[in-house]
Amino acid sequence: MKTFSPTPENINREWFVVDASDLVLGRLATQITHRLRGKHKPEFAPHMDNGDFIVVVNCEKIKVTGNKLADKKYYRHSGYVGGLHEITLEKLLASHPERVLMNAVRGMLPKNRLGRAMLKKLKVYAGPEHPHAAQNPQPLAIKY
User: Fold this and answer.
1) Is the domain defined by 14-139 classed in CATH 1.10.101.10?
2) Which domain of life is it from?
């Protein structure tokens, strides 16, 4: 018997919707990353993108533990001298709640072309509405 190696024809992607209301950020991000990579499937291969599509709604109602709202900071640099910008988690949740979950999931994915392709399958929305009803996403229960 030969070792099975999946090909692009073997990939079967499904759509799932996750309600992020009152879920902890890091625990939710790990479950989403697991699904995006396809590690829940028996035909998982680390060199292929065989994960599912994930739609996350109500991202503005996400929770964090401890004092992270005030203490956690996100940094970016413009490339110019003195161009370091920082924003706290509390301000980022108030202005762009989708970016909080996207940043958390991005940090857990591979840092290469494959990781960027996996991240494109994640759709995050602040409110309860999403435009992916035509794909008939199944509700995904997050367990932790």
Assistant:
1) no
2) Bacteria
